[in-house]
Amino acid sequence: MAHSGINLIFEGQNLPRLLGGLWITIRVALIAIIAGGVLGIFLGVLRTFKNRFLRFILRLYLEFFRIVPTVVLLFLFYYILPKSMNLNLPAAEVATLVFTLWMAAEASDIVRGALISVPQHQVDSGLAIGLNRSQLYYYVLIPQSLKLMLPAMMNLISRIIKTTSLLLLISVLDVINVGQQIIEANQKQYPQGAFWVYGVIFVLYFLICYPFSLLAKKLQKD
Amino acid sequence: MSWQIIQQSLPMFQKGFILTLQMSALGILGAIILGLMCSLCQYFKIPVLKQIVGAYIELSRNTPLLIQLFFIYYGLPGIGLKLSAYTCGIIGLIFLGGSYMAEGFSGGFDGIPNSQIESGKAIGLSQGQLTRYVVFPQGFALSIPALAANIIFLIKETSIFTVIAIPELTNTALDLIGLYYHTNEYLLVLVVGYAIILIPLSIILTWLERRIRYGTFGD
After folding, report:
1. How far is A205 from chain B (nearest CA, A)?
2. Looking at the complex, does the CB of residue B82 fall below 8 Å from at least one CB of chain A?
3. Which helix (H) or strand (E) element contains residue A27?
4. Which residues form the ABC transmembrane type-1 domain (chain B) (predicted)?
5. pLDDT at B55
6. CATH number, position A98
7. What percent of chain B has a predicted confidence (pLDDT) above 70?
8. Is A2 part of a structural domain of the chain?
9. Can you tell me whether residue B163 is helix, strand or coil?
10. What is the count of residue pairs from A and B with beta carbons less than 8 Å apart?
11. Is residue A116 included in any domain, yes or no?
């Protein structure tokens, strides 16, 4: 290649712009992971309660978010919130909301699974020394289940980050959207721009997600 | 919400529905074959291939399908490799699914209790016999739950094909919304469309899981 297309990345403001787009992507993921994680732990605890009705509702919530593809979820919220509820949010906030609810749904299942696999004698011992329900969760169940849920949580986090690539579809100015702008603006000078820009974004996503996948593997082994 | 609008749109959704099913089927089949080959390379620790497979799995698992598709569809023509959207979609799905399936199979093979392998060796089975009579039957049975989860995951991922303008379910809905603005109706059909595929499939796969599971020692 005589004039390699990789120069396109380093020309002018292109690299800072790409990284700026990446920051928007990461911000959506970060808020969703934190807020959704907290909500997910809360819902997961609720799902271990005996109340049938509550468990049914939460199960329905989980299954809905599992069955409907994320692309479709994004569009559902993006189109229906303003139309039916008169709630006009910027696209990035709609996306944050969707990812938070999705994270909460998936996390609640992980938390529930971890809570019910804490050995029964731990619960019995806790009750025997006179802990009440909330003390039992706070001092016994949640600390012990944390270790069990961490590998699955790491995988979920990396899934959330990967899925933020869909932000482009509801026209959030994320890293891929910025990439497209750069490619289109330089079409004449760099006909192979797409190869390099998408290649760089590919690598960027890999660099962000790989540590989580390594961590998940390591946690699984311990 | 108007039933008439829904009824009128059904023929178009039907086309998208069939395309989604078709591409999912091809992609999943390819992913299972690729995944099986990759996991066998890893299980038998074939020298160079094992490292290549390891790198492929990490690369494919840690990048989103959307950017993989963009790279294949828009990026590769830059270096002279031009493929139709349909082919790109299937290749993308196989590239993504292959690594998930490989992890599923590996999990199954690794889950076989050591006592089984040792017992096999103790009664004098050769490596080939051991693979044929001990490793495969038990490994496949153990990997079914992971494979089932991956199949559902891959079908949902086909919704991303809309970005390279493949007229599957999601793309059909978005097109119709853009044309006629009957947002609620089309989104409803879209959700129902995926539910029709995924809910029965998930029930069948759960049933299959219970059916195929081999009893483990002590069951």
Report:
1. 6
2. no
3. helix A14-47
4. 17-209
5. 94
6. 1.10.3720.10
7. 97
8. no
9. helix
10. 109
11. yes
Q: Is the pLDDT of residue A2 over 60?
A: no
Give the closest of B58, B70, B160 to A71, CB-based: B160
DSSP state of B63: S
Q: Do A166 and B162 touch (CB under 8 A)?
A: no
pLDDT level of residue A142 (50, 70, 90 thresholds): confident
Q: What is the total residue count of chain A? A: 222
Domains of chain B: 3-212 (1.10.3720.10)
Q: Tell me whether residues B79 and A169 touch, CB distance under 8 A.
A: no
Task: Tell me what pLDDT residue A4 has.
Answer: 66
pLDDT class for B219, splitting at 50, 70, 90?
very low
CA angle B131, B132, B134 (to 5 degrees): 65
Non-local (6+) Cβ contacts of B33 within 8 A are: none
pLDDT at A203: 92
Contact yes or no for B160/A166 (Cβ under 8 A): yes
With 50 as the cut, is the pLDDT of residue A3 above it? yes
Distances (CA, A) of B136 to A128, A187, B139, B156, B207: 47, 52, 5, 29, 21
Q: Give the pLDDT confidence of B132-187 residue by residue, as tens digits.
A: 888 888 888 889 888 999 999 999 999 999 989 899 999 999 999 889 888 888 99
By the 10 Å C-beta count (0-12 exposed, 13-18 middle, 19+ buried), A156 is classed as: buried
CB contact (8 A) between residue B187 and residue A162: no
Q: Is A213 domain-assigned? A: yes
User: What are phi and psi for residue A162, nearest 5 degrees?
Assistant: -65, -40
Structural domains in chain A (count): 1
Q: Which residues of A touch B64 (CB under 8 A)?
A: 162-166, 205
Q: Is residue A26 part of a domain?
A: yes
- Which of B58, B63, B75 lies closest to A162 in CB terms? B63
- The pLDDT of B19-28, averaged and rounded, is 95
Which residues, in sequence order, are CB contacts of A94 under 8 Å at separation 6+?
A74, A77, A78, A81, A170
> Among residues B114, B63, B65, B55, which one has the least CA distance to residue B89?
B65
* Residue A9 clears pLDDT 80, i.e. is over it: no
Cα separations in angstroms, B153 against A167, B49, B59, B73, B164: 19, 27, 18, 22, 19
Q: What is the mean pLDDT of residues A169-191?
A: 86
